[in-house]
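Researcher: Quick one. two chains, 847 residues in total.
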Amino acid sequence: MANEPLLSMHGIDKRFGLAPALVGAHLDVLPGEVMALIGQNGAGKSTMIKVLNGFVKHDAGTIQFEGKPWAAASPEVAQRAGISTIFQEINLIPFRSVVENIYLGREIRNRAGFLRWRQMTIAAKTLLDEFGIAIDVEAPLGHYSTAIQQMVAIARAVSFNARLVIMDESTSSLDDHEVQVLFATIRRLKQQGVAVIFVSHKLDELYAVCDRVTVMRDGRTVAVASMAEMNKLQLVATMLGRDLAEVRKQGATAFSASARPPGAEVLAVENLAVGRRVTNASLNVRRGEIVGLAGLLGSGRTETARAIFGADARGGGEIRLNGKPVTFTEPHDAIASGIGFCSEDRKQEGIIPGMSVRENMTLALLPALSRSGLVDEARQRKIVERFIADIGIKCSSPDQPIRELSGGNQQKVLLARWLCMNPELLIFDEPTRGIDVGAKAEIQKLIRRLADDGLGVLMISSELEEIVEGADRTFVLRDGRTVSTFDRAEASEATLMDAMAHGTAA
Amino acid sequence: MKHRWSGAGIGVVIALALLIAFGGIRYDGFLGSYNILTVLRYNSMFALVGLGMCFVIMTGGIDLSVGSVAAMASVVSAYLSPYGLLPGLLGGVGAGLVAGTLSGLIITKLKILPFIATLAVMLAASGTGLLLANNQSVAVSYDSAFTTLGQGNLLAAFKPEWIDGDNAGWMGTALGLFFNFPTPAWIALVAYIVGSVVLNARPFGRHVLAVGGGEEASRLMGLPTDRTVFAVYLISGGLAGLAGVILAAQFGAGQPIEGIGWELFAIASVVVGGTLLTGGKGSVFTTLAGVLLLGLIFTILNFENGMGWISLSAYWQSVVRGAFLLVVVILQSRLARTAPA
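Model:
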């Protein structure tokens, strides 16, 4: 493509306080092109996007959009000028109808100032039809799946006559089918000449939909290439700034095979039913092994885990811990029996953002750390410092608020929270979601180490390579039922996908 | 306990210091022991209610019932005052605890939003107080020691004679403040010290902040979230009851129609004190500073009128309080932004 770039950012510098976030970064996007923007957490991707859509002001550098200098004061201004951003967390209003969400802020009115509902409804329908979505546009947005909401957000963006759409981790909450629908939308945008900047941690997706890739590291643009010229391994190596040979040695994940044969059964779940989502789930976990729980989004993996942990009530079935039937009505009971649970939603269900690393790690332990009712801070600090050193948590001090830590380090703190309670069974729901590649490997190694130390581990993951390489055994859920079980030797991406898509209960 | 002054908390302390300095320079007798002790005596009720509110707000909740609970408790304690100090005290606090229990149960068991639940309890308590009192104030017995809870000075009996003498000097003034320190202010002071220890050094206090910072996260790490939430409403109710006891003892009557707007005064004090309305962050002693700050505005208006130049209606105090609330909150959000995270 020899035409002029639609967007061209050059020599962008940005500092937050003393820390440089961007150092001479550059990014070019051609019209109608899908550009992947990747990098580890903290590489500068999101700052780059924020500079572009006017969230923050850059210190130096030039930005040209459609041949003219670009300076958006806010995302709203950027949107009107032709650059729309779809955020990871959809920022639309779930209680209001699809129509309202599409027309919010630029409602069609008649001369007296009243809303022209009919016209807006028809226009919204037509707009969504273009994307191949046929839904009741008068229903509240919140009634629809995340994918549909995502599409509505995109439709809204495009209806602002966007020439460039930025998708910031748009696929992280979508299942495989929904991702395909999103990709179809992206291709349709392309045909209309709309360019897309696509930010994602998932490499496969980049190859499926992107034309070129811009790799960032430490605030700099380190590589720009066409997707066809760069294989996955090169991509990861560029992102990490490491030797290719070293990356190859590690494989796709940092999991190694278990060091010793599994011990006695610690958890057994039989014919579990939870709400409408889970109808008949069965699985078991032995000491010293990692058991994978695979399935598409909506197959009931998280619901199964939460029911085991006592976070949600179970409708039927039996759960045995060390051979004894148990009924937990609250997570508290499960924890007292030696179960720990790392939720997939770290922000809402894991960390207490405003509290320090120290408090986040030991909150649940405080009664045990108290002497005559007062928290023994010296003991608390000793435990916290031991875990920070032991599992390599990077923080400026134990008193640093946890929200300032990277996703990977937050996850490590949560892991430490459970470890200091000496659990027998740990349940991980998407342990490496939203965590950069380097920290991902560390978390994976840690999980294996815990299993080798004799813990039972139940791991839910949407990333097939994590299940294939990490799990000693895998149970596959489909529509709320356990449909198959694989040993390490039998599990491959192909067999797992087949079971997730077509498996029927034996 | 390592104490870190947060940017938000120090705003109210600065504002309070400025206001005291302003009053001290402008008015004679503003910093005299009589005025100081009067201010402390009168505001101790609000301090107690504010302390309870502080704990509630730190969990991310709100307690609208405190004013009418205090009014109801003042009636109950007035009825029980002839039987002595202790029955009056326990009766009032007990009435508050009943109301707090009710709020706590509605919120944790029936999963009703705190705003609605405590609104209901507020109406119920207000009605109960009026019913009990037959729509009039209930005289307190002066035969028992009950009124000392509001009017007495706890250590007055131990006061050496020379302190009140003419040449007692600054030593005498200082000791005079100590020995003449009002009983209700002692009660409030002890409550705040206990409250601070509970918040900072007891697991319960940390759990309160954790629940406010993320309720589901707290539940999933095994914290007793329901018990914690229940407990803060119980505390708030109990402290509102105690405030009601002091109200009755101080003014010599149970006052079923008092307490209107107390909840808003308490919320304002807590917010001025730098506690986040969304929960998860807060401090006990800056709440006390908030109570004193808003309380002093009333005193300043009185002094201003006393100077005889202008005559300001008492209603101006609300306007000035509102303005102060705004100024301090703006000041705090600026300070919080510049403070290192």
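Residues 7-338 of chain B form a domain with the ABC transporter involved in vitamin B12 uptake, BtuC fold (CATH 1.10.3470).
Researcher: Thanks, that's what I needed.
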